[in-house]
Automatic annotation (TrEMBL):
Matches recorded under Gene3D superfamilies: Metal-dependent hydrolases (3.20.20.140), Urease, subunit C, domain 1 (2.30.40.10)
Domain Amidohydrolase-related: 79-456
Keyword Metal-binding set for record: yes
Taxonomic classification: Eukaryota, Fungi, Dikarya, Ascomycota, Pezizomycotina
Protein source organism: Calycina marina
Protein's UniProt name: Guanine deaminase
Cofactor needs: Zn(2+)
Length: 461
């Protein structure tokens, strides 16, 4: 990674203090070094004397003239970049196209043909470039991507993330059974060899995995033989890389897993029995997990990616997020494009909020998630899920500057300003402003995005 410039970000910072609480820090200056790391934070910046500010520069050994200053204006705030803990880059061209399908017919009708078609390098480059740029423009600074079974096309996704500057986990899909002949791994051995090839490529382009990390990706238990799952479990042990897969998304899928793996007492036990359930495992969906399975996930410290838009769109069900949170699981949000129709984690947060009300209507009012809770899942929760909570997801000295600058517009002429459909009148509390952003906001409110201190998106109004 090239070394960037030193930066100073001045204004209001909002981030999660805890699951339930957002912290609003006004009049802050954040000093970000040439590696994108927060070197110092000064509070009450406008009231600080010149000597006090000079002292920070001196302590850091920085010259003022070397520093690029970005100031959030009134009504604007810096927020941690969103973390998409589950997204299929290879399905982006299908976003919104799902008809009335449910999981298994959706896979066969739309998904496998689209993914297979990305073995065409030109098409892959077109789709992958677009999905990276689109998600960045919605504030996604980190994405856990599934690519396809094709090694060259998966490697291309890693190359593009690195060049666009999006932090990413890149998974080559493993699937050696219950898949069409035109889109299937030849054997467990070839699936593992191909996974190793992608790991080698990513390690070659980003040796310390500073921005791009390979992730071992058994598609789901249905499409992997026991031999392949064992091989991938052994590969995880050998490499200590993260793992991503799907779990307990749809009732027919769960039934199929029972039939395919009769020796395992649950879907969760299938992954556990193959060495694939550990602290670095991201389990997407987890809609129908029993409480016993949730307990096992907790014991293994595996993580959950909640994908509410997808779960509604392809009628998978309502995930019991409150129950999983109460049991101590770490949870983030996933767009699951194109099971989900939107590239936006803000949309996923809104859908998580709404789905939690559907769970409440099924019985327990306590299941409702708050605005603060879903924004936690979108940022800090996501950072826990991808194992980077010491670096991203919130702001602090020593952490990396993955951030977005949000504007809700001024009261003057919001339509003219082109800043989306949020109307702020000036009398709202911070809590009210965040609720307005969640429910009325979109990418038009995202003015700029940084990853590791590098400006990766600036909105042209
Ligand atoms: N939502 C979703 N579920 C899956 N299960 C196996 N593959 C997929 C996929 O691509 N999307
Ligand atoms: Zn998925």
């Amino acid at each position: 990674m090239g070394v960037g410039s030193r930066s100073l970000f001045v204004g209001t910072l909002v981030h999660s203090k805890s699951l339930e609480e957002l912290e609003y820090l006004e009049d802050i200056a954040v000093f970000v070094d040439e590696n994108g790391v927060i070197a110092a934070i000064q509070t009450k910046y406008s009231k600080a004397t010149t000597e006090e500010v000079d002292a920070i520069f001196q302590k850091l050994g920085w010259a003022r003239e070397d520093v690029v200053v970005k100031t959030a204006k009134n009504g604007e705030f810096f927020f941690p970049g969103f973390i998409d803990t589950h997204i299929h880059a290879s399905q982006y061209a299908n976003a919104g196209i799902f008809g009335k399908t449910t999981l298994m017919d959706w896979l066969n009708t739309y998904t496998f043909p689209m993914e297979a078609s990305l073995s065409d390098a030109f098409k892959a480059k077109t789709v992958y470039s677009r999905v990276i740029q689109r998600t960045i423009s919605h504030g996604t600074t980190t994405a856990a991507y599934y690519a396809t079974i094709s090694v060259p096309s998966t490697n291309l996704l890693a190359d593009l993330c690195l060049s666009f500057g999006q932090r990413a986990f890149i998974g080559r899909c493993c699937m050696d059974t219950m898949a069409p002949d035109f889109y299937k791994d030849e054997s467990p051995a070839s699936a593992i060899a191909d996974t190793r090839a992608t790991i080698a490529h990513i390690t070659n382009i980003d040796p310390k995995h500073a921005l791009v990390t390979p992730i071992i990706t058994p598609r789901f238990a249905v499409s992997c033989t026991s031999k392949l799952l064992h091989g991938l479990g052994a590969l995880q042990k050998e490499t200590d890389l993260p793992v991503q897969t799907h779990i307990s998304e749809n009732k027919n899928e769960i039934k199929l897993v029972k039939e395919l793996f009769p020796d395992h007492s649950s879907y969760t036990h299938v992954y556990d029995g193959h060495g694939l359930l550990g602290p670095k495992t991201i389990l997407a969906h987890a809609v129908h997990l029993s409480e016993e399975e949730v307990d096992l996930v907790k014991i293994r410290e595996a993580k959950i990616s909640h994908c509410p838009a997808s779960n509604s769109a392809i009628t998978s069900g309502t995930a019991k997020v409150r129950m999983m949170l109460d049991k101590g699981l770490q949870i983030g949000l996933g767009t699951d494009m194109s099971g989900g129709y939107s590239p936006s984690i803000l949309e996923a947060a809104k859908q998580a909020h709404l789905v939690s009300r559907h769970v409440a209507m099924e019985g327990d009012d306590n299941t409702k998630l708050s605005v603060e809770e879903v924004l936690f899942l979108a940022t800090k929760g996501g950072s826990q899920v991808v194992g980077l909570s010491d670096k991203i997801g919130s702001f602090g000295v020593g952490m990396e500057w993955d951030a977005q600058l949000i504007s809700l517009g001024s009261a003057a002429d919001p339509v003219e300003e082109g800043l989306g459909s949020v109307d702020v009148f000036g009398w709202e509390s911070w809590e009210e402003k965040m609720a307005k952003w969640l429910f009325g906001g979109d990418d038009r409110n995202t003015l700029a995005v940084w990853v590791k201190g590098r400006l990766v998106h600036e909105r042209k109004i």
